[in-house]
Structures are given as structure tokens and as C-alpha cells.
Amino acid sequence: MSNRLIETLAGAAVIAVAVGFAAYSYSRAGIDTVDGYEIKASFNSIDGLSVGNDVRVSGVKVGSVTGQDLDPKTYMAVIKMSVRSDLELPLDSSAKIASDGLLGGKFVALEPGGDIEMIEEGGEIEYTQGSVNLEDLIGQVIYSSTSSSGDQ
Q1: Residues 43 and 76 sit within 8 Å (Cβ to Cβ)
Q2: Nearest Cα to Cα of residue 54 among 109, 10, 7
Q3: What one-character DSSP code corresponds to residue 44?
Q4: Residue 137: burial class (beta carbons within 10 Å; 0-12, 13-18, 19+)
Q5: Beta-bridge mates of residue 90
Q6: Is the dihedral of CA 151, 132, 110, 94 positive or negative?
Q7: How far apart are CA 107 and CA 97, in angstroms?
Q8: Domain residue spans in the chain?
Q9: Of 4-8, 88-92, 107-111, which range is least confident?
Q10: What does the alpha-carbon distance between residue 104 and residue 96 come to, in Å, rounded to a whole number?
Q11: By 3-state DSSP, what share of the chain in percent is helix, strand and coil, each rounded to 5?
Q12: 72 to 40, 69, 78: CA distances (angstroms)
């Protein structure tokens, strides 16, 4: 009977440590949302990007992805993002889906333009570059190396 009590207490301790670790990780991860104004951008591909991912300018988090949808007319992926209210983006700014390292997560990288007019609440970024698919790139490298070696 005492063995079961010890095993139960040990199991409870392991669960408590796991919950504590998860809470600590969440608090240190910087997953908090950014209050600000909402803008949107259309991309041909958003592979790996999801709601909650960062929006960054020069590597600094300035917002987060708040929604994603498909435009039924153009078949483009439309991303909604919240950007800090103290950050004004010029009308000719651009957005691209970037990756945090080779195996890291995706984020939206904004590059401010030089226009005098600024994007307003609900505005749209016109210049975009979609997500680059790593598997496709590797496949192209393998295919090009096998086709060039077969020519000789």
C-alpha cells in the first residue's frame, strides 16, 4: 500500500514540475499580442505562418498575425496583422514571410518604404513576397545536381 502512495506522490510531483515548466516557458516566450492598429497583406503562399506569429521590423517585434483567410476572387492568402499604434508605416512599405533560421518558425518581416503618406487603420500593404518552401528548394538543388551530372 505504501508503494502506491509513493508512486502517486512521485507522479504528482512530475506533473507539477511539467506544469510549472510550461507556465515558465509561456511567460518567457514573448507570445503576448500587441495592441495597435490592424493592417492586411495578400501573399501567394503563407506556408508555415499561423495566427499569433510575430510581425517584425528590422528584427524587432512590432505586432502579431491576427488572422488569415483566402480571397475567393484572387486565390491569394490574406493576412491580418496588428501593429503597434506608435509605429507609422509608409504607404509603399513591403512585407514578406521570413523564417527564423533553418528549422525555425515563420514571421512577417515588414520593410518600411519612403512614401510621405502612411498606411491607415485597415489599410493594405501592396508589395509582398510569399513564403519560400524549403522542400522545394532542396528538391531543385537535388534535381539540378543529378541532371548536370547525368549530362557528362
Answers
A1: yes
A2: 109
A3: S
A4: exposed
A5: 118
A6: positive
A7: 6
A8: 1-30, 36-139
A9: 4-8
A10: 16
A11: 30, 35, 40
A12: 16, 9, 10
